[in-house]
Amino acid sequence: MISNAPPPAAADDEIDLAQLGAALARRWRAIAAGAGFGLLGASWITLTTPRTWEADFQIVLSEDKGGGSALNSILSQAGGLAGLIGAAGGGAVGASSALETERTVLQSPSVLLPVFEYVKRQLPASQTRTLPFRDWAKNNVEVEAEKGTNVLNVSYRGPSRALTLAAGRKLAATYQSYSGRKRQRILESLVTYLNEQINLYRPRADASRERAEAFANRYTLTSVDAVPSSGGGAGVKLNLDRSIEGLLGNPTGSLKTQQAELNKRILELRFQLARVRAAGDREPVMFNNTAGGPLAELVGNLTASVSLPDLDGLIAERRSRFQDNDPSIAILQRQRQVLVGAINRQLAQELENSIALAQSQLAALQRPAGVLEQFQKLSREANRDQEILQRLENALAEQQLDLARDGQPWELISSPTLLEQPVAPRPARNLALGLLAGLVLGSGAALVLDRRTDLVFASDELRTLLPFPLLAELQGVNDPSLALVAQGPLAAAPQVALIPVGPIPEAQAVAAALQAALQRLDPAAQVLLSTDLTIASRCQAQVVLTAPGTASRRALRKLEQDLRLQGQPVAGLLLLARQPADCESESSTSDAA
């Protein structure tokens, strides 16, 4: 089948996997050489690497070390002490950053130097003369945090089984000793700091308490007055003069509360006095037990003492027997008015005495403006200083108790254990990595070599560089497609120029087969095989013959430009298919050239 349109050009950023695979297949020798060199290098590394043993163990940081810094945890356990004294770093440090800090500290010279000196004494002088501590710690000691826990995985690597196990045990003992020293140092520093703070706050608390007591005794205030009217906070416990309590009877509230209660009481008494005076001698004023209180009891006693109920009963009995204008009834009513007037006058006198007493109590409660506010401020200061002092003393007692105990070192979850097999060298891993690296490098070299030949192996790229109609893809010299080409595009051409591109050994045979196909239609037809475009331009039709892997990109571009400059039409393109072995031999020939 003849295609008259060139294939679309592939985008520059697209990779044709088929062409890539074909290029690697053509250059398999380079890939094999790379794999061989990789295996040789891995084998050399495996043979020259000294045997290395590893001892592993795990340690768990206690909660006060794993959840944050040790100082922060101790302060947090002391009842919020950090918030009172303003200790730096009062906030908790994240567990991950704390573990990372501990991991870095455990790899520092201050912790690892004793182990390093021990290892140096066990090794020959020739091996340790130029062994720096930093390189030894980096290559031989590894500390990793177990994700999501307070556990540290520690491993030590050494050149011999016995030394590795002994150094691992030495390392574990060093870590435990370090943890105890660290906690002891922190506790001692904290106890010293707490003593300093207590010596600072004790005189301050005593002075603030004395100021509040003196102020309260000066203005005859009670402890209840130290509480604001909003009720926000408890009053400080002060040794105050209780003379005001004797004056007021037994105060149960603050100064303002008592003043309000007395004012309310005075208003009630004045209202009751007005009722009594308005009643005159007509009727006695009666008070119920809930509203009148003592007054109701007083009225009851007065009426009983003058026999007013008996007199009312006698008047009622006379009215049942006589008319209201009877002289005896009038005498009894006058007697009743006299008794009622006496009762109301005595009741009014009692009310006036109660009002006077309440007013005197109210006058005793009067204080200059701002006295209560000043007393509440002094009480708050005394209460705050006393609370801080108490919490400091409690924290000091707790830390002294912790200091007296034996410090608990970091716990070993597992004792140092020597692995059964050496961790280095690892032949299987080294060979696998060497093979992988060799394959990668060999593949890269193969692609570079394939590209440097500049030969075109892909049919699509050939058709892109030679944008002429594809007449046929020949599978061999005697391909039946030649007859179809002779009957089709070349039928009216008595002379056909066959222009080979690249070294094509079958070019002469293809020209003969094409001429035979044309002569079946026209016995005078001829096929001229030539690379000279001047000679080819004299023929009625021009056909380009090429095959994958035979022509370079430079030659194809030059041919396409020369044909355009020639100005003669090109009938089309014949592609001679090649087997992979043929392409491989062509590439080898090109490399040799």
Description:
It is a single chain. The chain has 4 domains: 28-49 and 426-451; 52-244 and 369-424, Bacterial polysaccharide co-polymerase-like (2-Layer Sandwich); 254-366, no CATH class; 458-592, P-loop containing nucleotide triphosphate hydrolases (Rossmann fold, 3-Layer(aba) Sandwich). The chain is an alpha/beta fold. The chain starts with 16 loop residues before the first helix and ends with a helix. The chain is elongated, with a radius of gyration of 58 Å. The protein has helices at 17-26, 28-48, 63-66, 70-77, 81-85, 95-106, 109-122, 125-128, 133-140, 161-218, 243-248, 255-279, 294-305, 308-321, 327-364, 371-404, 427-452, 459-465, 481-487, 507-519, 533-536, 553-566, 580-592, and strands at 53-60, 141-145, 151-158, 411-418, 470-474, 495-500, 526-529, 541-546, 572-576. Helix 12 (255-279) packs antiparallel against helix 15 (327-364). The strands form 2 sheets. It has a 5-stranded parallel beta sheet with strand order 5-9-8-6-7.
Q: How are the strands ordered across the major sheet?
A: 5-9-8-6-7
Give the termini separation.
36 Å
Instruction: Using the alpha-carbon principal axes, give the shape.
Output: elongated
Described by strand count, sense and barrel closure, the largest sheet is:
5 strands, parallel
Q: Could you name the CATH topology of the largest domain?
A: Bacterial polysaccharide co-polymerase-like
The level of helicity is 55-70%
Number of domains: 4
